Amino acid sequence: MRIHQMNLKKILIGLVGIFMHGHIFATLPIQKIDLPTGAKLFYVEARTIPMVNIGIDFPGGFAHDQKDRIGVANFTAQLMNKGSKINGVEKNEAFIADSISELGSMVSFASGKEMSSVRIKTLSTPDVLNPLISQASDMLAFPIFSKKILEREKSIEISGLLESQTKPEYIMAKQFKKMIYRDNPLGNEQSVNSIKNVSIDDLKKFHQTYYRADQMNVLIIGDVSREQAIEIGTKLTKNLPKTGASKLLIPPLSSLLTQELSQREIRISHPSQQAHIQMGMTSPSRKDPDYFPLLVGNYILGGGGFVSRLMNEIREKRGLAYSVSSYFYPAKNSGYFVAGMQTKKDQSDESVKLLKETIQTYVSQGPNDDEVQAAKSNLINGFPLRIDSNSKLLDNLSAIAWFDLPLNTLDEWTNEVKKITKDDIHKAFQKNLDMNKIVTVVVGGQ
């Protein structure tokens, strides 16, 4: 086993007064350990409370589904806790739910665009932890995919989808992502037909292909020793396949090309009372050197709430919207930038024009010194809120593992923010935002 160790700062909060008036940091190690099953363990020992938070992340999401069967990853995850062989005996969803509840624990499965995940939260006492890990291991390796339950879940999913398709925010988001992702599998979206096509055999094949130990990041934070963490990670993944036919890679998302405005702007009629507006373009991955300049710069542009430029120009000066914001979504290979707002229908044209002008001015001129200093101070002072619980630490650990970031990422986060200059932000925005590539979607406008 290879063990890599770096430092992670965890905030220890005993009293609200401590949190409000100062930060107390204690240094805790992140350990990256290669497990005998082929999985990778990312472990942080935190003994402050007798709890353990566990996560398992691995490639296997909508982007891995076949075009005519988008939803397989989702339904596989949904059915993982609705029937399984536990200790060699078939158990139904009621037994699984009750047995976990009786231990005062939580076990959940989920699937997103690129990955599927397991999340476990439990007491660290042996009488609770040991049986829970044993059961979770069986649930991971020996699910029973019931046709009756699948049909039930498909019906629920279709009903929810049909309802969503009437809402302007859903229509806008779907069209925006279609323009961003184009033919890349990251743009895969469920449809009524694709859901109907999903079968039990699809779920079994997906489980066999993607629920593989060699592709898994096991994340453990809490009241267990390194030896216990290794044992837990090994138990959870020991019954899963250790290898597979491929690396399960998703093709990189190509950058948007320069296009005429007519090809980059789509307006969709809708009877909603307000116009929903969203615009953006592809942006760098999380590992890109421009990540921190874009993070700090976007806080000034539209990520800082009432202190942002977009809020000042659109809400404070003109009253065109109650809220307006922007953010960079950093993905593994390529993410996207998005800015959005809602406004009165008869103000949609003016709002789109002002949103573009404000972004263009910011890209062209960059921020001023006061804005940069204020943004860095707010981000640094708000950093403790990102890691003030084991659950939040687990989310951060998940990102470090998934994006293959340095193990000292959280230690260095505030230092990276401090380094950013006005010129760094200006260069990063000029490099990564091009108004001739930005796509725009308006739903319910004039």
SSE inventory with pairings:
Elements: E1 3-11, H1 16-21, E2 25-34, E3 40-45, E4 51-59, H2 72-79, E5 83-86, E6 89-92, H3 93-102, E7 106-111, E8 115-123, H4 126-141, H5 147-164, H6 168-181, H7 192-197, H8 200-210, E9 217-222, H9 226-237, H10 261-264, E10 265-268, E11 274-283, H11 291-303, H12 309-316, E12 324-329, E13 335-344, H13 348-365, H14 369-382, H15 390-402, H16 409-419, H17 422-432, E14 439-443
Beta-strand segment tally: 14
How would a textbook summarize the main sheet? 7 strands, mixed
CATH architecture identity of the largest domain: 2-Layer Sandwich
Q: How many DSSP helices?
A: 17
Give a structural overview.
It is a single chain. The chain is α+β, with helices and mostly antiparallel strands. The protein has 2 domains: 203 residues, Metalloenzyme, LuxS/M16 peptidase-like (Cytochrome Bc1 Complex, Chain A, domain 1); 183 residues, Metalloenzyme, LuxS/M16 peptidase-like (Cytochrome Bc1 Complex, Chain A, domain 1, 2-Layer Sandwich). It is built from 17 helices and 14 strands. The radius of gyration is 24 Å and the shape is globular.
In short:
With 446 residues, the protein is α+β, with helices and mostly antiparallel strands. It is built from 17 helices and 14 strands.
Notable characteristics:
single chain, 446 residues, alpha+beta, Cytochrome Bc1 Complex, Chain A, domain 1, 7-stranded mixed sheet, 17 helices, 14 strands, globular, disordered N terminus
